[in-house]
């Protein structure tokens, strides 16, 4: 349908140029008709695409299975080789003594 609308746009443009050059009223009306039909086809196509998108989204949501929760790894937290490091705040020349406890 989009290809038909594109062809109508080309026909409308050609009719417009011809109508301006020849000052023919009939060709001007052909231009207007081709443009109107093209716009209607674009609107119909957009409405179809929107309704198709909504219907497809509803089907995907209905068919989606609930995800299983991730398993908790207790061994990850009980790592015996892990070291704990204490970081002390030191006063540097830029802090102006603001880091004193």
From TrEMBL:
Segments of this protein annotated with the region Disordered: 80-101
High-level lineage: Bacteria, Bacillati, Actinomycetota, Actinomycetes, Mycobacteriales
Compositionally skewed regions (Acidic residues) per UniProt: 80-95
Keywords assigned: Membrane, Transmembrane, Transmembrane helix
Protein name: Transmembrane protein
Entry's transmembrane regions: 26-44
